[in-house]
Q: What sequence folds into this?
């Protein structure tokens, strides 16, 4: 038995490969386990068989390792998210599941792995799944609408003249009203009507699905984050994006600066010599960055203080986009205070 054990796991769809290191960094062993409930229990028991498990580095905590992360955390084991091995290391050491599992454990031991993963075990996970479903439905609706419009352009002249001048809603309603029962698909006019009718019905059903998902999301977000919704410029969609970005364990964010970095609105220093400047951070979660951008645009339109700030900073020589980046950074502080308050109330229920 060793006094301290560091674990590393390379996750996959059907099997997880685990590696164990002792306190000196010596490899104690590697083993594969199925991704079932019993397999995860065996993985943890295998690690504990070497001694007290200090931490486990898991690669892919948001995908194949999601259930493993939840189970390990639920059993009191510290879990850290491990980045993928860099190409230089793989070129030198090769690529295999045991090698990647050992690399995950060594990144924990070296202090390189410091990210606490999202747990995905509360209402925030429900919001994430509903948002993913809504985004898929919206993409399908846009694709179907574009296909319908392009089909009208190439339709037979009689049908084209009837549909071309209609707006999107009128076009969908007209195509849904086509009588296609018994239509001959071999006839170009009837075949086009049949195809347009199917596309219009698809768009209608997707619209109903999106409306239903919006209603579910509004109920969940209102229940989870009422104070954040009261922040000027924040709506259900923007708050949902930020909730999913943070996850259900906001304590992993040490400060508003770390939240800004996560959302991609933290300025990065790019100074040299006597020139002091900052550049745009193009990393972070783009959904969260987009949500903050929407909130700032709403404030610029309706908030007097935000308008005055824009006028003052542009008079100082900043561009409009630079001022918007500053406003995003200020908004982060206000939103994070509200989110933390909402999370405290949620945990006390």
A:
């Amino acid at each position: 038995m060793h006094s301290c054990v560091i674990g590393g796991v390379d996750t996959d769809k059907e099997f997880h490969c685990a590696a164990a290191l002792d306190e000196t960094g010596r490899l104690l062993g590697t083993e594969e386990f199925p991704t079932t409930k019993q397999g995860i229990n065996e993985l943890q028991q295998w690690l504990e068989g070497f001694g007290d498990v200090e931490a486990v580095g898991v690669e892919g905590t948001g995908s194949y390792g999601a259930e493993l992360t939840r189970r390990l955390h639920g059993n009191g084991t510290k879990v850290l998210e491990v980045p993928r091995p860099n190409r230089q290391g793989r070129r030198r050491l090769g690529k295999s599941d045991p090698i990647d599992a050992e690399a995950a454990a060594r990144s924990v031991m070296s202090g390189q792995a410091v990210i606490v993963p999202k747990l995905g075990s509360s209402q925030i996970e429900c919001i994430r799944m509903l948002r993913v479903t809504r985004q898929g439905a919206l993409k399908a609706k846009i694709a179907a609408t574009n296909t319908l419009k392009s089909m009208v352009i190439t339709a037979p002249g009689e049908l084209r003249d009837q549909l071309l001048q209609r707006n999107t809603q009128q076009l969908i309603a007209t195509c849904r009203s086509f009588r296609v029962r018994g239509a001959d698909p071999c006839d170009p006019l009837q075949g086009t009507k049949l195809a347009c009718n199917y596309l219009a019905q698809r768009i209608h059903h997707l619209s109903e699905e999106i409306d239903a998902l919006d209603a579910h999301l509004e109920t969940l977000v209102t229940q989870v984050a009422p104070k954040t919704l009261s922040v000027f410029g924040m709506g259900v969609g923007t708050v949902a994006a930020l909730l999913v970005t943070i996850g259900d364990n906001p304590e992993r964010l040490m400060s508003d600066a770390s939240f800004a970095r996560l959302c991609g609105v933290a300025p990065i220093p790019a100074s040299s010599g006597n020139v002091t400047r900052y550049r745009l951070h193009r990393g972070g979660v783009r959904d969260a960055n987009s949500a903050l951008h929407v909130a700032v645009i709403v404030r610029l339109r309706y908030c007097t203080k935000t308008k005055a700030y824009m006028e003052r900073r542009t008079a100082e020589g900043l561009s409009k986009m630079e001022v918007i980046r500053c406003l995003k950074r200020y908004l982060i502080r206000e939103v994070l205070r509200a989110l933390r308050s909402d999370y405290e109330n949620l945990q006390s229920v």
